[in-house]
């Protein structure tokens, strides 16, 4: 084709934030900070962490990735990824695949006004010991803070992880 017969490329529309994602849009981007972990069956530990929340234009879903590392050496510790599906009624569904093979299906609620997300596992799959996981995320003074609770086949729901992350 010559220049006279080629049709111009269609103009791209600007990306649109899906209305279901809008109440949680403050999460979008990359967050980094430090956390602490422990459980009755393991020694306490500290870690560095990065979370990334992304959004595909016009889709009612938030992509999620997480990675942690040892503060002393930078050696990778844990990673997970998944999708968060907020609904207009203030409920949310989350699926997460962890690098250790464990998978989670979580359901919960969010408050756009209070900037709090509460999640509770519906299913914890491919786990011989972990039976339940709860997560709470909250924006506090511009920091994304969270805590994770965990139960195993021998220990009831207990605090496991907590962190405070700053947006980059």
Description:
By secondary structure, the chain is mainly β. The chain contains no helices and ten strands. It has a ten-stranded antiparallel beta barrel. It is globular, with a radius of gyration of 19 Å. The mean pLDDT is 93.
Features:
10-stranded antiparallel barrel; about 170 residues; mainly beta; single chain
Topology summary:
Layout: E1 29-39, E2 42-55, E3 62-69, E4 76-86, E5 91-98, E6 103-111, E7 116-125, E8 130-140, E9 143-152, E10 158-167
Antiparallel strand pairs: 1-2, 1-10, 2-3, 3-4, 4-5, 5-6, 6-7, 7-8, 8-9, 9-10
Short description:
The chain is mainly β and 168 residues long. The protein contains no helices and 10 strands. 0% of the residues lie in helices and 61% in strands.
What class do helices, strands and sheet pairing give? mainly beta
Strand content: over 45%
Helix content percent band = under 10%
Query: What is the molecular shape?
Result: globular
Order the strands across the largest sheet as they lie in space.
Answer: 1-2-3-4-5-6-7-8-9-10
* Rg (C-alpha, Å): 19 Å
């Amino acid at each position: 084709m010559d220049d006279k017969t080629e049709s111009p490329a269609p103009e791209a529309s600007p990306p649109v934030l899906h209305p279901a994602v809008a109440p949680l849009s403050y999460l979008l981007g990359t967050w980094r900070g430090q956390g602490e972990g422990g459980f009755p069956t393991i020694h306490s530990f500290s870690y560095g962490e990065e979370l990334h929340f992304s959004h595909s234009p016009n889709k009612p879903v938030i992509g999620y990735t997480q990675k942690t590392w040892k503060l002393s050496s930078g050696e990778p510790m844990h990673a997970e990824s998944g999708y968060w599906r907020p609904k207009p009624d203030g409920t949310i569904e989350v699926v997460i695949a962890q690098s250790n093979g464990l998978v989670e299906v979580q359901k919960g609620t969010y408050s756009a006004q209070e900037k709090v997300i509460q999640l509770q596992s519906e299913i914890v799959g491919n786990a011989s010991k972990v039976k339940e996981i709860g997560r709470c995320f909250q924006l506090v003074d511009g920091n994304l803070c969270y805590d994770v609770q965990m139960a195993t086949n021998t220990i009831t729901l207990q605090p496991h992880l907590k962190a405070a992350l700053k947006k980059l």
